[in-house]
Write a structure and sequence with these properties.
The complex is a heterodimer. Chain A is mostly beta strands. Chain A is built from no helices and 11 strands. In chain A, the strands form 2 sheets. In chain A, strands 2, 4, 5, 6, 9, 10 and 11 form a 7-stranded mixed β-sheet that branches. In chain A, strands 1-3-8-7 form a 4-stranded antiparallel β-sheet, with no helix packed on it. Chain B is globular and about 40 Å long. Classes of the chains: A mainly beta, B mainly beta. At the A-B interface, strand 4, strand 5, strand 9 and strand 10 of A face strand 5 and strand 10 of B.
Chain lengths: 107, 120
């Protein structure tokens, strides 16, 4: 199975900050990488697929990059509604595996 | 508007069974592959099963293989998960998730989830 790791596991940031989260796959996955946002008690929301393509309706302050084993999610200017947990996920091969999540909270 | 609504969760004893359903609307259900993903309380996300459009390809995570069965009814726009031999560690919120395109595991829409609690 492909293992996914994320760093940091949590971070504190202020409104307006630029935030970057890193995701690493245990083996190359090309660009078969997605990012999700989850708020407490809510379902995950799809943000990015194909490592860098925005899902329909997702604001452009979210961006993704990377290929192979190393990926990043960037939020250009953090807003109150962005405080949440973010997960990466690979879908190169079954089983489709998620990273452990990065919690973003208010400084 | 795409909607996925899960149902069927509840409290069940270890060794028991439960059948989850996911009712789809707002899109042509028969054209999309579907998945079940679960999340144990306070934990991360775990993909558990995939089914292709006409059920000819099915995948399971090792953690549920042999105990859970995914199925779909395209005439009724519904997805199901039959869960047998339930264990305490199966306690989780279960989400159905649609694949965005032809590539398996590329989720775009998620339901709100249904809670399954396995406890004596």
């Amino acid at each position: 199975d492909i293992q996914m790791t994320q760093s940091p596991s949590s971070l504190s940031a202020s409104v307006g900050d630029r935030v970057t989260i890193t995701c690493r796959a245990s083996q190359g996955i090309s660009n078969y990488l997605a990012w999700f946002q989850q708020k407490p008690g809510k379902a995950p929301k799809s943000l990015i697929y194909g490592a860098s393509s925005l899902q329909s309706g997702v604001p452009s302050k979210f961006s993704g990059s990377g290929s192979g084993t190393d990926f990043t999610l960037t939020i250009s200017s953090l807003q109150p509604e962005d405080f949440a947990t973010y997960y990466c996920q690979q879908y190169k091969t079954n089983p489709f595996t998620f990273g452990p999540g990065t919690r973003v909270d208010i400084k | 508007e795409v909607q996925l609504v899960e149902s069927g969760g509840g409290l069940v004893q270890p060794g028991g069974s439960l059948r989850l359903s996911c009712e789809a609307s707002g899109f042509t259900f028969s054209s999309y592959t579907m998945n079940w993903v679960r999340q144990a309380p306070g934990k991360g996300l775990e993909w558990i099963s995939y089914i292709s459009t006409i059920s000819h390809t099915i995948y399971y995570a090792d953690s549920v293989k042999g105990r859970f069965t995914i199925s779909r009814d395209n005439a009724k726009d519904s997805l199901h998960l039959q869960m047998n031999s339930l264990r305490v560690e199966d306690t989780a919120v279960y989400y159905c998730a649609r694949d965005r395109n032809v590539w398996a595991g590329e989720f775009d829409y998620w339901g709100r989830g249904t809670l399954v609690t396995v406890s004596s």
